[in-house]
Amino acid sequence: MIQVPAVPGTRTRTSRTRRRTSALVAALVLPASAGLALVTAPGAGAATLPTAPATVTGVGSGKCVDARAAATGNGTAVQQYTCNGSSAQQWQFTATDSGYYRIGAGSAPAQVWDVTNVSTADSALTQLWLYGGGANQQWLPVQEASGAFHFVNRNSGKCLDVPGASVADSVQLQQYTCNGTAAQSFNVSGSDGGGPTDPPAGTPDFGPNVTVFDPSMSASSIQSKVTSVYNQQVNNEFGTQRQALLFTPGTYNVDIPVGYYTQVSGLGLSPDQVNITGGGIHVAGHTSDGNATQNFWRDVENMSLSPSSGSTMWAISQADPFRRMDVHGGMLLYDNTHGSSGNWSSGGYIGNSRITGQITSGTQQQFLTKNSSMGSWNGSNWNMVFVGDQGAPGNTFPSPPYTTVGQSPVSKEKPFIYVDGSGNWQVFNPALRTNVQGPDWVNGTSPGTSIPIDQFYIVKPGDTATTINAALSSGKNLIVTPGVYHLSAPLNITRANTVVLGLGMATLVPDNGVTAITTADVDGIDIAGLLISANTTNSATLMQVGPAGSTASHAANPTTLQDVFFRVGGDIAGKATTSLVVNSANVIGDHLWLWRGDHSNGVGWNTNPAAQGLIVNGADVTMYGLFVEHYEKYQTTWNGNGGRTYFYQSETPYDVPDQGSWTTSGGDLGYASYKVANSVTSHEAWGLGIYAYLRDHPNLVLGHAIETPTSAGVKFHDMVTTVLGGAGNINHVIDQTGPAVTASHSHDTWTTYP
C-alpha cells in the first residue's frame, strides 16, 4: 500500500490503489426441495436427513459435493464443485444401523462414498464404489449447532474434509482427523437446519440465486443461509456467483454481513414493514487492517435496521447503493474495528433513507447523500456532497469540504419489488418529483404506480438475448435475477415506460463486440440495478440511451438510470471504446460507476483498452453520484446543453506508458477528466473530486482536471484535485485556473468557476 502525503487538516492515508485480499473460506446453502420426507438418524443428535436425493454443500467452500464428470463408476472421485443443480450433485441417504448412513449417487444409489483402500490414515481420498457393507462406506452425520453436519467415517473415525480448506473447483474430498473447522462442515438441503424451508406460497419463480425469507422460518435456518451466502461472496470480487436475499414483511433477529454481488432487500411497500434487529446489516473492511477500498458491488434496500449495537457499519467504496433504508441509530461509513493504519474507504452513496443518529464518515475520501434525512454528520476528507437532504451540514467548502445543495431539482427513485397485504407480488415504480428534500416514504406511501408481477418477464440463468428481446417485444417489463448473462445481440428497449430491474448485481456481458443495451428515444424507461461488463472482443459502446441525433423532449417523463455500473477489465481482458452514451434528452443518472479495471485480471494499457467512460449528447441531462475512473482518454465528455452534475469522483488511469501516449491531438498534456465541449453554453456542476495516480510513471502531467468553455451559463462549484502516493502532477484545477498539485503539494481546491 502506498502512503499518501497528509493533506493539511487531515490524517495521512493510503491511496485508493486496489489491493487484492487473500481468499477466505466461503459457503452456500441451497433451499430444500419441495415435499421432501425426512428420516431421523438414530444416535446423531436427532438429526433429520432427507429420504429423497439431496444436495450437500460445504460450509467452508460454498461448493457442492459432486461426482466428477457426472460419472458413477467405481473409482469416480468425490469432489467439490460449483453448485449447478445437476444429477452429479444429488445424494441419496440410506440408513444402515446405529445412526450410520451409506451416501450414494442420486442416479445410482448403490455407488456410495467410499474411503480408498479401506484406509484409516489422514488425507485418504474419497471415491464412489459399489456398496458392499464396508465400514469405510458408512458415515455418521453429526449435526452442529448451526444445523450443518460433519460426517464421521465408521471405519476410521475421521471426518469428511476439504483438503487445505480449499475453495477451488475439482478438489477431491478426503478424510481427516475431526477438528471442527468449516472445511469439515456441510449443509444438507432438506435437513432440519441446513437451510431455509421452501419459499412462501405464491412466490414467483426467481430462479436459483434468489432466496425469499418469511418470518415463519426458523431464525437458525435464516441465519445459516445468510452466513453461507456471505462466506461464498466475501472475497468473490471477480467471481461469477450472484445472490439476492429478500425478506417478506416482518421482524427478523439476524446478523447480515453483505459480500460481493449480494443484494439484501425488504419486500414491504414501506421500509418499516421489514425490520432487521440483532446484528443488523453491515459491511466491514476487506483486509485485516480494515481497508474498504475494494468493497464494490453490493446493495441494501427497503428495510428498517434496529441493530443491538445502536450503529450500522457500512464500510464501502463504489457501486454499493444504500437506498430506501430506515436506520434507527448511527452509521459508520468506515471500519473502525481494525485500527487506523490502513482502514481507508472510497465511497459512496446513500439515497432516499433516514438515519436517526449521526453518520460518521471517518476515512471516506468522498461521499454523496441524496434525498435523505440524518440526525447529524461528522467527518470530512476531500469531497462530501449533500443534495436534497434534511439534517445535513451547511455548505462550508473547502473547510470542511461540504457541498450542500438544498433540493434535488428533478428526481425519480428506484423501482422495487414488494408483497402487498393480500400476498400479491408487485413492483412499485416511483413517480418523478421536482425540488425534492428528504425521503419520499416518511410521511406515507410514496407517489408512484404499482405494476403486477405478471407484467414482468423474470430473466433467469439460461435466458439469452433472444428470449429477453422476445419478452420486451411482447410488452413485458424485466426483472433480471442474479446471474451472468452473455448477450449475442443488444437488449433493445423500445416501449415507453419499460422497467428493467436487476437483482443481486445481475451482470450483462456483450459477446462479439455488440452493445449490451440500446433504447429508443421514448418516455419513461427505467433501468436499474445492473452491472455491464465488457467482453474480450471490443464493443464500441456498452450501453446507448437513445439513438444518435435524438431531439425529443422528455422533461415530463424522463428515462432514468439508477445503480447502473460498467466494468472494462478486472475480471477478464475486457475491451470497450465507450461505456455509456446518452443521446436522449432529460435523462437522469442516479448513482453510476464507470470503471476501467485497475487491478486483478486482464489489466494493462493495451490489455483492457477503454477510451472514454461517459459521453452525454442529450440536452438537459442530470447526473447524481457520477463515478468515472481510469479511462485512457476523457473520463466524461459533455456535448449537450443544460447538463447538471451533483457529485463527481474520478481518477486518472494508473498505467499510462508515457506522456506521448497521453497527449491530446491539440497538444494538451493528458486528457481532462471532465470535459465540457466548446459548443456548450449552459452547464453546471457541484462537488467534483479528481485524483491523479500515475503509478507507472509518476512524473507524467495532467494539464488540467476539468476542461470547459468560458461562458456565463457554464458554472462549476467546489472542485478538489489530489495526487495520490506522490505519483503524478495536475497543473490546474479547471482550464488554466487553480493551483497545481504535485508529490510535494498533493491536495488543493477551487471554489467557483468562472
Automatic annotation (TrEMBL):
Residues annotated as signal peptide: 1-46
This protein's UniProt keywords? Lectin, Signal
Transmembrane segments annotated in the record for this chain = none
Please give one Gene Ontology molecular function term for this protein.
carbohydrate binding
SMART domains (alphabetical): RICIN
- Taking every annotated instance into account, which residue ranges of this chain make up the domain Ricin B lectin? 52-189
Keyword Signal present in the record's keywords: the answer is yes
Q: Which CDD domains match?
A: GH55_SacteLam55A-like
- State the protein's name: Ricin-type beta-trefoil lectin domain-containing protein
